[in-house]
Design goal:
Elements (H helix, E strand, L loop, with lengths): L2 E3 L2 E3 L1 H11 L4 E11 L3 E10 L5 H18 L9 E5 L12 H9 L1
Parallel strand pairs: 4-5
Antiparallel strand pairs: 1-2, 3-4
Helix pairs in contact: 1-2
């Protein structure tokens, strides 16, 4: 599923791969979705499952590091304008694939 941000296509799997590779020590699973936004069309957002429990300060720091990783590795339309959300788990379909619609519901609340 593609995200359309600023009239450009964003491939969620590309951002997920970069973030998992860079933050493997902290992240167990991740899903990037597009949240409806009047300015961007769909704003890329990351739902992140942590490897270990972190303090509020550590969460804020990791969130900024995740955003910085995307900023350093991606074009302006690939930035996480929708934010970073820490979740307990990434919903899966019966076949084991990421249920992006369910993730979007979690993040869009």
């Amino acid at each position: 599923e593609m995200i359309k941000c600023m009239d450009n296509q964003v491939v969620p799997a590309e951002l997920e791969h970069i973030l998992l590779q860079e933050h493997l020590r902290d992240i167990v699973d991740i899903c990037v979705v597009g949240i409806a936004n009047p300015k961007y069309g769909e704003a890329p957002a990351a739902a992140v499952v942590l490897r270990n429990k972190l303090s509020q300060e550590e969460l804020a720091n990791l969130s900024e590091r995740i955003k910085a990783t995307v900023a350093e590795n991606g074009a302006v339309h690939k930035q996480l304008y929708g934010g970073v959300f820490f979740v307990d788990s990434i919903p899966k379909t019966e076949s084991g694939k990421t249920n992006r619609a369910a993730v979007l519901q979690k993040c869009a609340k």
